[in-house]
């Protein structure tokens, strides 16, 4: 079949991080000559079109178009992580009829393949009904995805729900992770009543649908997640590990710098100017991603820890990041004045450029999967303060498996922050740097011709090109 008639519909979760990874994938498919329709919610599309970089980049691809759908929520809805369950259930009501219409063979440009987030499990059923193969793209870490697949066995074996309150107890019945993962390292909902929790219910439905999907895409590479990828493949052989996506894209674009930004917030480039004036490896970059909401007290613990460490820092504090009734402007004014000479605060940074900057020596992160991969690409060790889903197991692996940083886990204490910052940036710097730089090299090799992420991407593209209606 002529691949010019291949038409992929991409439908990401309505989050900055997933839109980011899915746009990277979309660009890779466009570069391979495929036609791509990218389905975004109206709310996120409005924020994305403010980013001229995205518009101008995708204009180059005649086969690419954005399509939008309402998420069914009123404009004033805050859409923070705390309401994530509402967002996905409301979007489901809108997306089900929309997908049925979109996947009809009678439309002008019939869709030959759908790529959607695994949490949109209903899309797999609709695709099968309409005769359109569906590939799920899970943007979380492969280790967490493997834990998801093990959940039914954990329940069957009586491991879940946990008995007793020992969060440090090692979790059994988790092949490839025995002796490594404790209860506190599992996705947060394993510690809740997962039978009633909305997000865990969606995960259970997702893993039930996986065998009905045509394929699975994961954003990682063999040298990083080999043991977990091979476990996932034993369950679902058609798993394409094509990450790290930003590097795969950079290679195929033959771009000198990893600058392609898919930000829905305006990036503050004064952060780069500030970094230019600092010495090599002297700055710790602090960012808790696009979703996390924190209290004033928690910020103050990090603040004091950072200030007491005397290590220079660049900190991203999003305007929608504060819990409770705190005035962002007033609070920021106080913090900015208090850290002159040591720290620099912005509301959103060009993160990939920041991590690539020679002045940055480490990253204090919430262990979101994109942030973790971006840090590994640039060979920057991490301190992890994880909260939700995959972040908890990722931070454990950073500390205990890859040995490229420190895991703070649930602790939020200025003395621990100070000690870990000093360890990462000074005392144990060489040790962590050596291991993360090794992974960075392997990541770069994996996306070069002959590397596994490179060939996995080719296999995925050929698979899609072979799909017909
Ligand atoms: C969420 C979950 O938190 C995470 O656990 C899961 O793996 C993916 O979904 P998020 O919290 O947004 O993601 O974190 P992360 O995956 O790290 O993505 C954040 C993205 O925003 C990164 O690509 C990062 O480069 C970008 N970013 C962040 C910026 O461009 N500028 C910033 O100032 C902060």
Automatic annotation (TrEMBL):
Gene Ontology biological process terms from the UniProt entry: glycoside biosynthetic process
CDD domains (UniProt xref): GT1_Gtf-like
Enzyme Commission identifier(s): 2.4.1.-
Family membership: Belongs to the UDP-glycosyltransferase family.
Superkingdom as given in the UniProt entry: Eukaryota
One GO molecular-function entry: quercetin 7-O-glucosyltransferase activity
Species, as recorded: Solanum pinnatisectum
Root EC class: transferase
Keywords: Glycosyltransferase, Transferase
InterPro entries: UDP_glucos_trans, UDP_glycos_trans_CS
Protein's name according to its UniProt entry: Glycosyltransferase
Pfam family, one: UDPGT
């Amino acid at each position: 079949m002529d691949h010019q008639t291949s038409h992929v519909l991409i439908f990401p979760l309505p989050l900055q991080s997933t839109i980011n990874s899915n746009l990277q994938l979309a660009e890779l498919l466009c570069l391979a000559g495929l036609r791509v329709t990218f389905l975004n919610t109206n709310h996120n599309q409005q924020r994305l079109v403010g980013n001229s970089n995205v518009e101008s980049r995708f204009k180059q691809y005649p086969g690419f178009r954005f399509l939008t759908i309402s998420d069914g929520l009123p404009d004033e809805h805050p859409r923070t992580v705390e309401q994530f369950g509402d967002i996905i259930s409301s979007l489901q009501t809108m997306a089900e009829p929309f997908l049925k219409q979109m996947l009809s063979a009678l439309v002008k440009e019939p869709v030959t393949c759908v790529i959607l987030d695994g949490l949109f499990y209903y899309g797999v059923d609709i695709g099968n009904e309409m005769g359109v193969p569906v590939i799920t793209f899970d943007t979380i870490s492969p280790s967490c995805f493997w834990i998801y697949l093990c959940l039914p066995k954990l329940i069957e074996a009586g491991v879940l729900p946990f008995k007793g309150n020992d969060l440090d107890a090692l979790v059994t019945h988790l092949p490839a992770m025995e002796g490594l993962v404790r209860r506190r390292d599992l996705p947060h909902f394993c510690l809740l009543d997962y039978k009633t929790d909305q997000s865990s219910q969606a995960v259970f439905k997702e893993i039930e649908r996986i065998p009905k999907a045509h394929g699975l895409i994961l954003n990682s590479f063999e040298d990083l997640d080999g043991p977990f990828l091979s476990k996932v493949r034993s369950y679902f052989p058609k798993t394409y590990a094509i990450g790290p996506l930003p590097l795969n894209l950079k290679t195929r674009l033959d771009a000198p710098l990893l600058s392609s930004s898919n930000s829905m917030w305006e990036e503050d480039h004064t952060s780069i100017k500030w970094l230019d004036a600092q010495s090599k490896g002297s700055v710790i970059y602090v960012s808790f991603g696009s979703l996390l909401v924190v209290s004033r007290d928690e910020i103050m613990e990090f603040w004091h820890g950072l200030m007491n460490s005397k290590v220079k820092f660049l900190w991203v504090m999003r305007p929608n990041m504060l819990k409770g009734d705190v005035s962002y402007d007033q609070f920021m004014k106080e913090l900015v004045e208090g850290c002159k000479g040591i720290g620099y605060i912005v509301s959103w940074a060009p993160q990939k450029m920041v991590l690539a900057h020679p002045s940055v020596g480490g990253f204090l992160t919430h262990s979101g999967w994109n942030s973790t991969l971006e840090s590994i690409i640039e060979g920057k060790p991490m301190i992890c303060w994880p909260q939700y889903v995959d972040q908890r197991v990722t931070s454990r692996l950073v500390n205990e498996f890859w040995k490229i940083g420190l895991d703070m886990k649930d602790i939020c204490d200025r003395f621990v922050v100070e000690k870990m910052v000093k360890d990462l940036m000074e005392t144990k710097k060489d040790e962590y740097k050596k291991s993360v730089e090794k992974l960075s090299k392997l990541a770069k090799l994996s996306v070069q011709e002959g590397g596994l992420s490179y060939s996995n991407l080719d296999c995925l593209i050929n698979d899609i090109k072979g799909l017909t209606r």
